[in-house]
Amino acid sequence: MQDTAKYLIHADITAAGVVERSDVVGAVFGQTEGLLGDELDLRDLQDSKKVGRIDVEIRSEGGQSFGEITVASGLDRVETAILAAALETIEQVGPCRAQIEVAEIEDVRSAKRREVVERATELLNDFEEKSIRTEDIVETVRQQVRVADVTDYEGLPAGPRVADSDAIVIVEGRSDVLQLLKYGIKNAIAVEGTDVPDAIADLTAGRTVTSFLDGDRGGDLILKELAQVGDVDYVAVTPSGKSVEDLSRSEVMSALRDKVPYETVASAKSLDSIREEMTQTGESTTADGGAVTATPSEDTTDSQPGPGTQTGTAQAETTQAETTDGTVVEETETAAVTDAATSETTPDEGDEPAIPSLSDHIEAVIENHSGTARLVDEDATLLAEGDADDVVSLLESADEVPRTVVIDGDCTQKLLDVAAQRGVGVVVSAGHGEYVKQPTAVQVRIEG
C-alpha cells in the first residue's frame, strides 16, 4: 500500500507501562471504531485498500513505552487529516494510559518530486560534464590521437619509436612526451620523477642520447643523476624557467638542433651560463651525430640557394646528412630546420645591442638587491617595473600578461594566486615566503 499511497501519517506514542505492538494496533482499531462513521471506518478502509497496514515500532525503557506509528493513506487530504486527528483521541493502550501525537502528514508525491528534482540535477550535471562543445571537437580529437600514440616502455610513458630507434630523447614527464609527439618527435621517453629508473639507464647504452629537460633546478638535478647512471651524449638546452611542455614547435626544433655535447655542459659552471651565452651570441652549437632528422621536400632539394642564404642552406643540408641515423623527428617539414638555419646571421658592428635575457633581469633585480619587481614576457622583454612590495598590484594592473615575474623579495601566497589568475608561468623570487598551496600552472624559482 505504501508504494501507491498518497500520504503517510507519522505519530508518536507514549504509554505509562510496558506495551507491545499488538496492543497498539488493537487500541487504534478498537478506540476509533464508529468514531468517524461508516465511510471512515478503519477496517472498511483497509478492506477497500484505501488505508494501508498500520506500522508500529515500540520500545520500553524504565517502565514506560515509546514508539512511532505510521499509517499509509490513499484518501484525499481532508479525509487523511481527519483520520490522523482520530488517532490522537486514543487514551489507553492495553492496561496502560497512553498518549498519541501526530508528528506530521507526509505528502508522498511531494517527496518523490524532490527525489526526481535531485536526480534530474545529478543527471544534467553529469551530462554537461561529458558533453563536448563544437569548438572543442578538433582539440579533443587531437588530444586523443596524441594519447593513443603514447606507448609504455617498461612502465614509463614513451613515444612509439623508443624501442627500435638508434637515438632517444629523455624528458621529464608524460606531458613532455605528448608535446613532442604533437610536433612529430616519436622517440622520447620520460623519467617520471627525479629518481632515474634503471630501464632508462639501460636504454642509454649503445644509443645516441639527448637530454631535453625543463629549465629549472629540478631538470638540472635529473641531468646530473642521468649522467651518473647512464650515458648522455647531448643536452638540448631549454630556456631558463621554461618547461618542455610549454615550448612552441619552433622552440623545440631550435633546442634540439642547437643541442650541445654533454662534455660542454659538464665543464660549464651551470646550464644558465650556457643559456646566456647562446642567447647573447645566437650562434648554433649543433654537434655531429644530431638529434633532428627532417624529410626534405622536392622543392627544397632541387632549388639553388639565393644570394645571402648559401651559408644557412649548407648548414641545413649538412645537418640532414649527418643525422639520418638518429631519427628523433619523424615526418616533419624541412622548413623547421632550414628556416631556423637561414635566419641566423652574424650581427655587424654598429648593430643594436643583444636583447636582454631572463638572466639579465634576475641579476638586475635580485642579485643587485634592487628592492624592485619586473614583469617580463617570453622574449625577456621588460613589460613593467615597480617596487617589490607593490608586485601584486603591478601584476593585476598590467595590460599585457607577462610570462615571468622577477621580484627581489619573498614569494607569497597572494602573489602566486594572482599569477595563476593572470596566466603567469614562472615566478622568480629571492626567497620562499609563506604559502601553503602552489598553483600547478605556476613554477617557482628561488635565486636568493
From TrEMBL:
It catalyses: ssDNA + n NTP = ssDNA/pppN(pN)n-1 hybrid + (n-1) diphosphate. InterPro entries: DnaG_primase (IPR050219), Primase_DnaG_arc (IPR020607), TOPRIM_DnaG/twinkle (IPR034154), TOPRIM_dom (IPR006171). One of its GO terms (cellular component) is DNA-directed RNA polymerase complex. Gene3D superfamilies: 3.40.1360.10. Transmembrane segments: none annotated. NCBIfam families: PRK04031.1-1 (NF003108). Keywords: DNA replication, DNA-directed RNA polymerase, Magnesium, Metal-binding, Nucleotidyltransferase, Primosome, Transcription, Transferase. Belongs to the archaeal DnaG primase family. One of its GO terms (biological process) is DNA replication, synthesis of primer. It comes from Haloarcula mannanilytica. This is DNA primase DnaG.
